[in-house]
Amino acid sequence: MKNVKIIHLPQLFVFFHACFAQADFAPHFYDNGPYSQNGNLALFSLSEDTPVGTQIYCLNGTDPEGQEVSYGLSFDPGSKEYFRVDSKSGNITLVEKLDREKQDSIDVLVSITDGQSKVVERVTIFVMDANDEKPDFQNMPAIIDIVETTASGSSIYKVEAVDRDTGSGGSVTYYLQNGQSTLFAIDRHSGVLRIKSGEMLDYEKTKTHFVTVFAKDGGGNFNGKEQFLSSSSTLTINVIDAQDTPPSFIGTPYFGYVYEISVPGSEIFTVVAKDGDVGNPNPICYTFEDGDDGVFSINKTSGCITLVTLPIYLKREIFNIKVRASEVSPEGRLMDYGVTTVVIRVVDLNNNPPTFYGENGQQNMFELTMYEHPPEGEILRGLKITVNDSDQGANAKFNLRLIGPGRMLRVVPQTVLNEAQVTILVEDSAAMDYEKHHFLTYKLLAVEIDTPERFSATADIVIHLLDTNDNAPKFASDYYIARIPENSPGGSNVVSVTATDPDSGPWGDVKYSIYGSGADLFLIQSESGIIYTQPWASLDAEVRSKYNFYVKAEDAEGKYSLAEVFVTVLDLNDHPPAFNDNFLEKTMVIGAPVKIEAVDDDAEVPNNVIEYAIMKAEPDINIFDINADTGEIMLKSYIKSMAIIQNITKQRDFTWSLVVQARDRGQPSFSTTAVVKIDITEAVSYNKEYVNNNIHIKSFQFAIPEATSPRPPN
Ligand SMILES: *[C@@H]1O[C@H](CO)[C@@H](O)[C@H](O)[C@H]1NC(C)=O
Ligand SMILES: *[C@@H]1O[C@H](CO)[C@@H](O)[C@H](O)[C@H]1NC(C)=O
Ligand SMILES: *[C@@H]1O[C@H](CO)[C@@H](O)[C@H](O)[C@H]1NC(C)=O
Ligand SMILES: *[C@@H]1O[C@H](CO)[C@@H](O)[C@H](O)[C@H]1NC(C)=O
Ligand SMILES: *[C@@H]1O[C@H](CO)[C@@H](O)[C@H](O)[C@H]1NC(C)=O
């Protein structure tokens, strides 16, 4: 057997050999201090990525006696044998793959022997990290539920990836796939995923988001090169619908109808609303907001609107009912709501015409007796008329009209809804005249306005007028002109006047009278209106030819009117013309006329219009002309001197005697003659006395009534 050496070293096994007289020193490994390789593997470390087969170490030792040494290598029982040693050279080869993450140190028993002594030492080899591990996501892939109302910027998840490498190869940063999401962001260090600030989830837009998250290590050596390792995983984000959308009504606008045949409980219309949060809809509760006037009800759950009253009690034609649909939370709370309007129209069948009623029911004839000329605006209270139309709304709307003579009466109101008291009032008092109409007949008309049928009703209105003394007697003319010949006997008719009074009875009886300063000579018959002269009156146109006075016509109540009477006394030719003197002497200067003149006392032309004529001349040689109108006598124009006269007359006497006639133009006509003696002188020798053609009159008068155009006496 071999010598036994005692080695005083920790961790060394000491083998004892049989004690021989001669001692043998044991081999040993070199010990080179901390900075250079020892011979015994102490403090050796090895990167885990070292390939199998690599010579990793060389055991180095020596024997003090210089004997050849050999090396050995062994492992604890049951542990993996990573290395093999070449016993001669001490070269150690890696024979098993290393994995630091599984085993980061290897205990090895190295031994050296010189053939006699054997030294065994236990050493630990450290396995060093290489970047061979990927980041490994924990709890991924994951599915998370996020309520859509989650505030923007909120963190919603923390991803975690583990890299078992050490150092930067074991550090992890996170990122999202490039531009994959505008909604989410991840913190690269902590792995916290957030909703980007300013962004909100919206269930109604996207119900699920798939977010790919990358984890990357910080890089490290592997097989002599730097390498980075990363991995990815997907996060599924389910957006949870929040109660953020109110219910909305389907199929609007809504129109419903109430018919005349509807009864309480009749279904009018059913509204339907759905929760806008369609992912998680709540049940709906229907209620009225307003406009139902208490005459409709709505089923909270079905939305069915029913009538609660009889249609005739509906006060409107159109109801605009606001209906609210509220979502009901699982706890029974009313939450979000939507509102809509249901228009309900009351449809009437228009089966009733307007109808007139009197005090005792339906009536089509109304009569009233009243005095003529009632005050304007007076209501005919005696007519108790109502009108109604039992339909509803537009079907019960009608116009009232009064049709009849003139515009004497007016009806109020003009437009009726359902029912009205009919008032008829006086519009034109003057026209309501008994003298024109003893009764008035009107038709009262009620005609529906807006219905296709235009139902109507008529009633007769008869108003009997009573007379009042509303008229004064009225003359046929404002004035009367009468002519009466002068010399008419007393009691002669002058003129007859007439006034009429249309009133009845004594109000229409007329009495006449006359008065005024010109009335003295006249009388009037009070009943007949005949005016005649007083019995004693004698009318003389030459004294007074014009009379005027008033005539009065008066009824029994003293209502009267006046007319004026003008009486003209007609002139009769009762005066002949007369010369002042029937014998005249005149001196005529040649070239100048002499004038004679007669007067006629009659009042008027032609009775007092005189014509002059020369009837006879002595000597009987007519050398004179007379102007028939003026009575101017002159020599015929060719007689310009005494010599001519002498030549004509053959005498020396220049004195003429003319018979001149003055005749009026009355009928019958009267005439008168006068003798005019004319002395003719030359102008140079005339006497001052004759210059003015003064006439010396020696009077004798006679008249010859002469009927030039005889007439039968009146
Ligand atoms: C062994 O160690 C000695 C002393 O340090 C050295 O001189 C020699 O070169 C080593 N041998 C080998 C093979 O490394
Ligand atoms: C041991 O390894 C070294 C270095 O690789 C080599 O030079 C030497 O020849 C080897 N010795 C044996 C006996 O294989
Ligand atoms: C409301 O309508 C529902 C469903 O039609 C019905 O079951 C319920 O009886 C109605 N409620 C009333 C109060 O009528
Ligand atoms: C119409 O008016 C009359 C009289 O006032 C009345 O008797 C009748 O009942 C009314 N009809 C309706 C439908 O109102
Ligand atoms: C008068 O009459 C005679 C004869 O007829 C005439 O010749 C004479 O001229 C007349 N003398 C005058 C003035 O006319």
Automatic annotation (TrEMBL):
InterPro entries given in the database record: Cadherin-like_dom, Cadherin-like_sf, Cadherin_CS
Stretches assigned to coiled coil: none
Pfam families: Cadherin
Signal peptide: 1-21
GO cellular component, as recorded: plasma membrane
Domain of life where this protein originates: Eukaryota
UniProtKB keywords: Calcium, Cell adhesion, Membrane, Receptor, Repeat, Signal, Transmembrane, Transmembrane helix
Main localisation: membrane
A GO molecular-function descriptor: calcium ion binding
Domain Cadherin: 44-137, 138-249, 250-356, 362-475, 476-579, 587-690
GO annotation terms (biological process): homophilic cell adhesion via plasma membrane adhesion molecules; retina layer formation
Topology class, membrane: Single-pass membrane protein
UniProt name for this protein: Photoreceptor cadherin
Lineage: Eukaryota, Metazoa, Chordata, Craniata, Vertebrata
